[in-house]
Design a protein that fits this description.
111 residues, elongated, PMP22/EMP/MP20/Claudin
Length: 111
């Protein structure tokens, strides 16, 4: 709300769901980065394992989790504020969340 902060005391479960999906996204993205770095290492035991494909799949999984988190947050927030307050808006962190969906999607594309 412009100039005032109000706590979300009605439903805490969606905060937990949003947080869990974002943590899962972070883990998938982290392992995708690690496997992507391993693509430059040439061990004979890893030759049959397509590391770039696995990293791309992990980035798509990360994209899916970010999209779920943002969808849960958007749905509950609009429902909560739409019923109670007339003038409210999403802030910059919300926009960065949706930008993260787009960026994780494009990071999963293999050339």
């Amino acid at each position: 709300m412009p100039g005032k902060c109000f706590p979300h005391a009605d439903s805490i479960a969606y905060w937990d769901a949003t947080r869990a999906f974002m943590i899962l996204s972070l883990l998938a993205c982290f392992f995708g980065i690690i496997i992507g770095i391993m693509a430059f290492i040439h061990y004979s035991s890893f030759d049959r394992f397509d590391k770039t494909f696995a990293a791309g799949i992990l980035f798509f999984i990360s994209c899916f989790f970010v999209m779920l988190a943002m969808a849960v947050y958007t749905g509950v927030t609009i429902n909560y504020y739409g019923k109670r307050y007339g003038s409210w808006r999403f802030s910059w962190s919300y926009i960065i969340g949706w930008v993260a969906v787009v960026l994780t999607f494009f990071s999963g594309l293999n050339p």
